[in-house]
Amino acid sequence: MSKKQKFSRRKRISPASRRRPNIRLEDLDYRNVEVLKKFVTEDGRILSRQYTGLPTHFQRQLAKAIKRARNVLLIK
Length: 76
Hints:
- The protein has 76 residues and is mainly alpha-helical.
- It has a domain at 23-71: CATH 4.10.640.10.
- It contains 4 helices and no strands.
């Protein structure tokens, strides 16, 4: 008979908490293309909040800024 192994539970760390960007609300402007490109995939899709690690109000402002930049053709 073999001994039963005891498994300890590992604390889960979400991927969002590992890469939390230092960004200010003033930086989320549709004219600031360098910052906005960090939150868009190569296909042009906006990254989710779970991936970016941004708070809800930042994510909403980010989505608005990206959509405005698309309308002005700053981002494709």
